[in-house]
What we know:
Blueprint: H1 2-22, E1 29-40, E2 43-44, E3 50-57, E4 60-65, E5 71-76, E6 81-86, E7 91-95, H2 97-107, E8 109-121, E9 124-135, E10 138-147, H3 154-161, H4 167-173, E11 179-186, E12 191-202, E13 217-218
Amino acid sequence: xxxxxxxxxxxxxxxxxxxxxxxxxxxxxxxxxxxxxxxxxxxxxxxxxxxxxxxxxxxxxxxxxxxxxxxxxxxxxxxxxxxxxxxxxxxxxxxxxxxxxxxxxxxxxxxxxxxxxxxxxxxxxxxxxxxxxxxxxxxxxxxxxxxxxxxxxxxxxxxxxxxxxxxxxxxxxxxxxxxxxxxxxxxxxxxxxxxxxxxxxxxxxxxxxxxxxxxxxxxxxxxxxxxxxxxxxxxxxxxxxxxxxxxxxxxxxxxxxxxxx
Length: 261
């Protein structure tokens, strides 16, 4: 039961973190960086923080998590394709993100409420929205802190959401103004995963950053599924023997025996 709860919680947090990153996509080039911290009894856990980085150029996205230093995820939205690169083995495999997240999207129910709470997150003044996701008989409550200082094209967020089983979450968040600069996901009474935006820059990128290197060999994706052994953006590994395909976010490695988040 504990494993089932952990996996389900991981799906919600993992998907929301990715959504948090891609919200600022537009016709410009963007570099986005955020920090993920594990908080227990109100204190950060030593060695448990990690950094996520994303480069965005029009319809192309490059995604990297430092907990999985060898893996890169590249999405070509204009071609409706996504690729997982292993920089250590110099291999690449195509992954069908839409199919992988279809099961979760079908089962997920989402509700929300705006509170009167406000706070400053980094340089941004933010207001609170409580988002509740339910799937596989489990519910997860997350605090979204939104700022009106960052203007986000909603149509772009909705477009990316289709790849990540996030349509229902995007539709729910679109009820409110603002862009999420912090997400607090409660694991239990003591443990919380906190995701904060730390950098958002407009800067030009070479298009080669979003291409597959010619020397990379294509990896077979038919054995046990294209995302075998990958995990959520906090660095915890998923196992295809216990996870539904929708539970896997490509490009993340690591493991924890009883809890994903």
